[in-house]
Write a structure and sequence with these properties.
This protein is α+β, with helices and mostly antiparallel strands. The chain has helices at residues 12-37, 40-47, 60-66, 103-110, 143-157, 185-189, 207-210, 222-227, 244-258, 262-271, 300-311, 326-330, 389-418, and strands at 79-82, 112-119, 122-128, 138-139, 280-283, 296-298, 315-316, 319-320, 335-336, 342-344, 349-351, 356-360, 364-369, 374-380.
Length: 426
């Protein structure tokens, strides 16, 4: 920028005008420098800033910006930080996975931000989209439910929760006198409480759309205040019905039991020991509790490390953080969901072939196939909304294609080794 000299003979009006232009130019330069100093996720967020806290009713552009920076949104509550591990787990590269499909086209159809395939602990495929990359954090949505489930297992092993058959009111006394009087921890975990709940993401009047805006009674957690008013629909244990509110209730129960924030317990039991490379954040409710059914922000590679941790038995130094046999129960069908060869465990979606999934709205997920040593992470912003049936079917097709590719490699390896003649005598 050229230097401007103002002489003693310059008229006062000209001096003022010149000063104003110079000052505004300096502000513009400072603003530009400040803008460029921001990371690209924050710049994207500020360019398309959502102005209301209800994610379900954001525009696609707002979701693209917000999902990568949910913990920096002024319209949402604060978050707790989950520090990175001091001993990050390496994810070494493996040979590129040969798939009979166009991965770029698949990602475009998913509106994918991240896609990672681990096989036997090695990265066989890693791609990013929507301007996202390995250094950023993407929100989990209901993938957090499966993380919360694992922390419940840890709390049982640590003795904070005595039994899956304990009553909810043993840990949350303010729920006494509600429809949850006869509901057990196990029934919360399998979503079989029988309490009425509407999870319609397109309905502004549904429970899932309204409960975050509920004004609680003085001294009562906002979620507890909302949930204890819900009526019973059917007897406890007789019906599976998906309810984010109940996973959030599990989080309150868990925090009451362990007597520490869930982010702290997550750091102690999983994030640190499993070797997560980057810090995560966990969004808080208006009353300062981690929203356990949602909203852990983490790097895609760390979601993959969590999947690998579960696939390897949730073990730290050879010892599982959950009770013996508990993880097998959690990740296999405890209750039917009315669909062939599919079920629900303890906050995990289960399949008949032994694989299972953590799933979140708009295309977030961790697919785990222990038999094939597979972990697949998907972060996305589905064009068709929270539950996009076309995108969901395409994603399951991708999982099957990866399974087949791994099976074909195994068959090919066996055939190649069997065709080698044994060496003769020397």
């Amino acid at each position: 920028m050229a230097q401007i000299r103002i002489g003693t003979n310059t008229p006062p009006s000209m001096k003022l005008k010149t000063f104003a232009v110079t000052f505004l130019a300096a502000i513009a330069m400072a603003a530009t420098a400040g803008w460029l100093s921001l990371d690209k996720e924050t710049r994207a967020l500020l360019a398309t800033l959502p102005t209301n806290a209800n994610v379900l009713f954001w525009t696609q552009a707002q979701r693209d910006a917000g999902f990568r920076a949910l913990d920096r949104l002024p319209v949402l509550a604060k978050s707790h930080v989950v520090p990175a591990s001091i001993t990050p787990l390496a994810l070494p590269p493996g040979p590129p996975l040969k798939l009979p499909l166009d991965v770029d086209a698949f990602m475009a159809g998913q509106r994918s931000a991240a896609l990672i395939v681990l096989h036997d602990g090695k990265v066989r495929l890693e791609r990013y989209g929507l301007g996202f990359d390995a250094s950023g954090r993407w929100t989990s949505f209901s993938v957090a439910k499966s993380v919360t489930s694992t922390l419940v297992g840890a709390a049982i092993r640590d003795g904070f929760i005595k039994s899956m058959d304990d009553k909810v009111t043993d840990y949350i006394p303010q729920m006494k006198g509600s429809a949850y009087d006869d509901v057990s921890v196990r029934q919360l975990m399998t979503m079989t409480s029988g309490v009425r709940w509407n999870e319609d993401y397109a309905d502004p009047s549904s429970d899932v759309a309204r409960f975050n805006n509920h004004k609680p009674e003085e001294g009562v957690n906002a979620l507890v205040s909302y949930m204890r008013r819900l009526p019973r629909d059917v007897p406890a244990g007789t019906r599976w019905h998906y309810s984010t509110g109940e996973t959030n209730l599990i989080g309150i129960l868990l925090a009451q039991a362990v007597k520490k924030p869930l982010a702290t317990y997550l750091s102690e039991k999983i994030w640190g020991p499993a070797g997560m490379e980057q810090q995560a954040t966990w969004i808080l409710s208006k009353t300062g509790q981690e929203i356990s059914g949602c909203c852990i922000q983490a790097a895609a590679r760390d979601f993959a490390r969590f999947g690998l941790f579960i696939a390897n038995g949730a073990r730290v130094n050879g010892q599982s953080i959950v009770p013996e046999g508990w993880l097998a129960e959690a990740t296999s069908t405890r209750v039917g969901i009315g669909q062939p060869e599919r079920g629900y465990g303890y906050q995990w979606w289960t399949l008949a072939d032994g694989s299972f999934m953590a799933r979140g709205i708009f295309g977030q997920g961790i697919f785990i196939d222990p038999k094939r040593k597979l972990v697949i992470v998907t972060n996305a912003n589905w064009a068709g909304g929270a539950r996009d049936p076309v995108a969901a079917a395409a994603r399951e097709g991708f999982f099957k294609a990866v399974q087949k590719a791994v099976d074909d490699e195994t068959v090919g390896f066996k055939n190649s080794t069997s065709s080698i003649s044994p060496a003769g005598p020397l």
